[in-house]
Amino acid sequence: MEPETAHAVLTVDLAAIVANWRTLKARHPSGDVAAVVKADAYGLGARPVAAALHNAGCRSFVVAWLEEALAIRDALPGAMIAVLGGLIPGTETAFGVHGLTPVLCSLDEIDRWQNRGEAILHIDTGMSRLGLPPSELAALAADRKRLDGMAIRYAMSHLVASEVPGDPINQLQRQRVAAARAMLPPWKFSLANSSGIFLGPDFASDLARPGAALYGLNPTPGQPNPMHGVVRLMVRVLTVRDIPAGATVGYNATWKAARPTRIATAALGYADGYHRSLSNRASACFDGTPVPLVGRVSMDLTTFDVTDHPGVQPGGWLEVLGPHLSPDDLAAAAGTNGYEVLTSLGRRFQRVYRTA
Ligand SMILES: *Cc1c(COP(=O)(O)O)cnc(C)c1O
């Protein structure tokens, strides 16, 4: 099943990512659906992920940084690659030469992009990070000459709390978007991220920008996940040993055996993105049933109580993420979100890309 020499295997199901993109397209009939592939496609591999989506017909991609765009440009002929981080001074020529689309975030960036080609204009409606703040939006609306020579492909804004449908800030942002659009030329607009697509037609636009849902994270927390899982992480069992009642496991002896116990040591640690905050809190799966993590997660190793699982043997495999254990599940145990679980996944795993 798993490559024979690997200590850990991360399988990424590209076909499931494509299926998720098609699901999102069906949920967003008002417009197109881009693929957000920033942070190496949330840790899963920007080049293979973006190429698979491009093959399936996706022509709009979103990254955070110029370097991330350059790393995938040649794999995505004819596609828009938008760079969320904006136009860092000195990068204007590189954007132009490589046919990349800056997401302009300020009046200064607008001025530096004059007569240089297509751009996206980011308008801040509540995040207060990037995007034109209300004062700069008003200045722009009052001085439309500044927009001469601007080819704005989309204006966009980003939702603050789209995964919480009842949060009143969603409606507030919708109103702010409408007000901003009334001040500007009738540009196309881009609004929803993954969860925003599931907020319904009020949040539909000409271009949705999902990331998380493509990678199988649940865009509707608390409700059944409409997306397919796309990752499986299997790690090798190195040793299995019997310890007596009273023996301790791991650094700082944070776990003590209450009964004679079988401990499996697995080839996985916090250097692989298996967060130390999972210590004594998470489980792995053997044959579809949970085996509790006991003791501290260390850099390369993690220990599990397999007393009730005689099938666990050295050289065997434990599922750390997969059909029985989603990134959202692991995130809940770690006290974080699925985004951080995926983007933390380490570089030491053997990676396998499934296309069917
Ligand atoms: C990361 C990001 C997205 C994608 O968000 P998801 O919640 O992963 O779908 C969309 N738009 C912007 C501006 C982002 O920074």
Show the helix and strand layout.
Layout: E1 8-13, H1 14-27, E2 32-33, E3 35-36, H2 38-42, H3 46-55, E4 60-63, H4 66-72, E5 80-83, H5 92-97, E6 101-104, H6 107-112, E7 117-122, H7 134-142, E8 150-156, H8 169-183, E9 189-190, H9 194-197, E10 207-208, E11 231-243, E12 248-249, E13 255-256, E14 261-266, E15 283-286, E16 289-292, E17 302-305, E18 317-321, H10 327-334, H11 338-344, E19 350-354
Parallel strand pairs: 1-19, 2-10, 3-4, 4-5, 5-6, 6-7, 7-8, 8-9
Antiparallel strand pairs: 1-11, 11-14, 11-18, 12-13, 14-17, 15-16
Helix pairs in contact: 1-3, 10-11
Bound molecules: pyridoxal-5'-phosphate (PLP).
Protein traits:
356 residues; alpha/beta; seven-stranded parallel beta sheet; six-stranded mixed beta sheet; 11 helices; 19 strands; elongated; binds pyridoxal-5'-phosphate
